[in-house]
Amino acid sequence: MKKIFYTTSSIMLLLSNVATAGTGLYHIFDQINNSISMGVTTVHLNYRENVLDVKPSNPGNIEDYGTVYGFVLNARKMFYERIYTELNGEYATGKVNYDGYEQYTLKPSKHKNTTNLFNVDMKLGATLLDYQYFQVVPYGDFGFHYWKLGRS
C-alpha cells in the first residue's frame, strides 16, 4: 500500500495545476470555490479502550494503533455567487497493530488487522463578505465516519 501511496502522490504532483489570477487575486476565489481536487491521505490511528475502568477483572486494556493510507476526492461549487457547497470523500486502508485479548477466552493477543476508514463530509454556507483580497464564508458541516476493523 505504501508503494501505491508514493506512486500516486508523485503522479498527482506532476499533473497538478496552481490556481492563477488574471489581473488580481479576485479570480482566485472563483477557481478555488468552483473546483475538483484529488489527493492522497495518511491517517495515524491511536485507539484505546480503557476496559479496566469498567470491569477490573479483565486482563488489560485494548489498543489499536498504526498508519493507514488512502485517497481523497473533494468538490466545491459556489451557486449564485453566494451559496457555498463542498463535498469531501476519503477512503483509507491498511494494517494496524492490535494489543489486547480475545473477547471470550480473555487470552492475551497481539497481531495486525486490516482496517478500512471511510469519511464523507458536506459543507453548506453563505458568503457574507466578498472582497478582492478575502472572503468570509461561514458554513454548517455534516459528516459520516465509518471504521471497519477486522478482528482475527
Provide a compact summary of the structure.
This protein has helices spanning 2-15, 26-33, 51-54; strands at residues 35-49, 62-79, 83-101, 108-126, 129-130, 135-136, 139-149. The protein is of the alpha+beta class and 152 residues long. The chain is elongated, with a radius of gyration of 22 Å.
What integer is the average pLDDT? 79
Q: Specify the helix fraction band.
A: 10-25%
Total strand count, please? 7
What percentage of amino acids are in beta strands?
over 45%
User: Which residue ranges are poorly predicted, with pLDDT under 50 across at least 5 consecutive positions?
Assistant: none
Kindly provide the radius of gyration, computed on alpha-carbon positions and rounded to a whole number of angstroms.
Answer: 22 Å
Number of helices: 3
- C-alpha geometry: elongated
Largest sheet: 5 strands, antiparallel
Strand order of the largest sheet: 1-2-3-4-7
Distance between the termini: 20 Å
Q: How does the helix and strand content classify structurally?
A: alpha+beta
Order of helices and strands: HHEHEEEEEE
